[in-house]
Amino acid sequence: MASYIGRRELLAALGGAAAAWPLAARAQQPAMPMIGFLNARSPEDTIHLVAAFRRGLGEGGFIEAQNVTIEYRWALGQYDRLPAMAAELAHRPVTLLATAGGEPAALAAKSATSTIPIVFVIGGDPVKQGLATSFNLPGGNSTGVSILTTTLEPKRLGLLRELVPGTAMIGVLGNPSLSEYESQLRDVQEAAGTLGLQILVLPVNTDHDVEAAFEAVVQRRIAALTVLAAPFLDTRRDKLVALAARHAVPTMCISFVNSLRPAVW
């Protein structure tokens, strides 16, 4: 995990912003600091993460509805909704923008404001995405954490091959709308070549695409399937599990349920 913001900095952004409001401006501001929480995923698949977010704020003395307000926005895996949501939160105006669910939410927030502090959680390289100047000195108004989910695709492919030995071809399910998709695919293709594997690339953007992808896996007699990390696919976790079970296809996907370890169904 790569991290370059401490809790002290986050709390300073919240508490300091409230304390620094001029008296004339406070009449136009909310009665308490307001956090904008922008997530590319859905409330249903992030219940535990939101609980952890609230718990972390509580450890710093910020309790929702008591001394801080949180405005939630969920894109439900539909990235095109994020820019308008980010712009709305920026115009509230919020004291801080917290984004989750990967690069789409973080990039939307960065496009919406150059002054409101942004704290993000993404799966790839924030420098390559333009979210930070460097890991040590992020610069600008955004900082955060990378959990490296989109950079671990080759490792998951190797683990899947060990779990399903003897297979010559593995299906790769990915979301082309994610900015990291092309680099994910290049990493997987390179790893497949090293492992002597063939891969069947299955791009999906809709629920129908997901169902069609599993049908293609069955028709081609693909022995196993790996799911590239993407907010859209995170919000379709239940569908993926059901289809993997229905078609008896060993399927690997990054899991956020209890930890960051890969999950195989």
Annotate the secondary structure layout.
Blueprint: E1 2-3, H1 7-20, H2 23-26, E2 34-39, H3 47-59, E3 69-74, H4 82-90, E4 96-100, H5 103-112, E5 118-122, E6 142-146, H6 153-163, E7 169-174, H7 181-195, E8 198-203, H8 207-219, E9 224-227, H9 231-234, H10 237-247, E10 251-254, E11 262-264
Parallel strand pairs: 2-3, 2-4, 4-5, 5-6, 7-8, 7-9, 9-10
Antiparallel strand pairs: 1-6, 10-11
Helix content: 25-40%
Proportion of beta-strand residues: 15-25%
Span between N and C termini?
25 Å
Shape: elongated
How would you sum up the major sheet?
6 strands, mixed
What is the CATH H-level superfamily of the largest domain? Response regulator
Q: H/E series, N to C? A: EHHEHEHEHEEHEHEHEHHEE
Q: What's the quaternary structure here?
A: single chain
Counted beta strands: 11
CATH class of the largest domain, named: Alpha Beta
Give a description of the structure:
- The chain is α/β, with parallel strands linked by helices and 265 residues long.
- The protein folds into 2 domains: 146 residues, Response regulator (Rossmann fold, 3-Layer(aba) Sandwich); 115 residues, 3-Layer(aba) Sandwich (Rossmann fold).
- The protein has 10 helices and 11 strands.
- The strands form 2 sheets. Strands 1-6-5-4-2-3 form a 6-stranded mixed β-sheet, sandwiched between helices.
- Helix 3 links the parallel strand 2 and strand 3.
- Helix 4 crosses helix 5, helix 6 packs across helix 7 and helix 8 packs parallel to helix 10.
- The chain starts with a strand and ends with a strand.
- 39% of the residues are buried.
- The N terminus and C terminus are likely disordered.
